[in-house]
Amino acid sequence: MREIERIKESVASGKVATVYLWYGEDRFLIQEGLKVLKSFHFMTDPSGSGMEVVSAKELSPAVIVERANTMSFFANRLLIVEDVNYFQDGQTADLEPFLDYFANPNPRTCLLFIAESVHRGRKFYKALDKTGEIMEFCAPKRPQEWLTWVQSELKVRGKSMNTQVASQFIEWTGHHTGVLSQELDKLIVFVGERQKITSEDIKAITPQSIETSIFDLLDAVASRSSAKALQALRDVLRKEPALKVLALLVRQVRLLLGCDALRKRGGNVAEAPSVLGISPYEAQKIWQQSVRLSTGQLSKALSECLNTDLAMKTGGGDPGLLLEIMLIKFCEGP
């Protein structure tokens, strides 16, 4: 999030780096950063002729360096290198052209590398870090960070939500920056000239995410309310096919069992993201939910999920009905 502000500051001051390395799992935020960086180059080249996108998997480092050193008719040039995979073992010799270039980059070119992940111990990373600028693009992790991100997005759009409504919006929509941004754009159109967005606006125009629906469904199971669980299931089935719903339930039950096992061996919620391979925010929610479900309930739920999966794939009945029967069994307890 802060990375976007850094890019904006560089563009506003006209001090864009000659070499960048951007990486991280949030592709939406990287694309937002690209829009800002491109705006700087569009100022002197409205046609975009000085911008080029290449793949690290298709062009050698020597060819990329040659293109970076190519002089442009326009005041500046932007060369974007995607699919960067320069952090593997045994690549140092192949990357020598880059190491030489980093020592004396073309001042008329902005060379941008985009990677999913990096290795800080590699020579490529260390050499680039001395000359260029490295930015990690990752989604918010803690609840307060998500709220801050949504509020900043609203400010840019000239709208507002109170904290409670913003929290509801995040819970309702899910924790994906791209989806949240898209839904905010829809809300802006929906409310028109009105400045404040309400809870009723969100319910009227924003679809509830499947992940949130699954949480609601399992909350009903935890309270052993068959009626609420069945209603939640029917709501989900109106949006998604039965097999996908079952797959999400299986994933959720396995994560809940993982939290249950972690707690029993003396672990805590801070360990859950690395142990279970999920985000800190999701870990927090699943950890809280696992407290309400016994090991027996979760074990039975996983067994019933697998039985239902087999029945669906062998023509054992209507998929929706099979899921309903499964949920009723969940609510009965171990």
From TrEMBL:
One of its GO terms (molecular function) is DNA-directed DNA polymerase activity. Its EC number is 2.7.7.7. The keyword Nucleotidyltransferase applies. One of its GO terms (biological process) is DNA-templated DNA replication. Residues 211-330 form the DNA polymerase III delta subunit-like C-terminal domain. Residues 20-136 form the DNA polymerase III delta N-terminal domain. SUPFAM superfamilies: P-loop containing nucleoside triphosphate hydrolases, post-AAA+ oligomerization domain-like. Pfam families: DNA_pol3_delta, DNA_pol3_delta_C. It catalyses: DNA(n) + a 2'-deoxyribonucleoside 5'-triphosphate = DNA(n+1) + diphosphate. Keywords: DNA replication, DNA-directed DNA polymerase, Nucleotidyltransferase, Transferase. One of its GO terms (cellular component) is DNA polymerase III complex. InterPro entries: DNA_pol3_clamp-load_cplx_C, DNA_pol3_delta-like_C, DNA_pol3_delta_N, DNA_polIII_delta, P-loop_NTPase. PANTHER family: DNA POLYMERASE III SUBUNIT DELTA. Belongs to the DNA polymerase HolA subunit family. This is DNA polymerase III subunit delta. It comes from Desulfosporosinus fructosivorans. The gene is holA.
